[in-house]
Design a protein that fits this description.
Layout lengths: L1 H21 L1 H5 L1 E2 L2 E3 L4 E3 L3 E2 H56 L24
Antiparallel strand pairs: 1-4, 2-3
Amino acid sequence: MKKMKIAFWILVFAFLGLIIYQNNAFFRAPLSLQVNLAVKAYQTPELQIWVYFIGAFILGILLTYLFSLPAKFRAGKHIRSLNATIASQRDELTALKNEVAAMRSPAPAAPDQNEPAPVNTDKVEPQE
């Protein structure tokens, strides 16, 4: 899959390079942008068209980043809350495992205080 991605991007950049090479005269032509408001008119200095293309590309990247930033913050906050839930559930799981292990282990063999001492049946005592 990684090799297919690389091949795809190589093809995309090769196609863009071909378009730019075949339309070199268009991209090198100078152009001046004008904005005529009712009060004042603005005009940019003459720049080659490729400068406008690069500027629009960079502006698109910046706008995309700015609009995706709140979603990244929300995702980070959600991930932190889920990690806190995981940690609390791990602690609870450990406590429950310890409790189950304590229930399964045999109780220590301690003689009961009220129980009579064992009778030795090997020796027979004479009766009188």
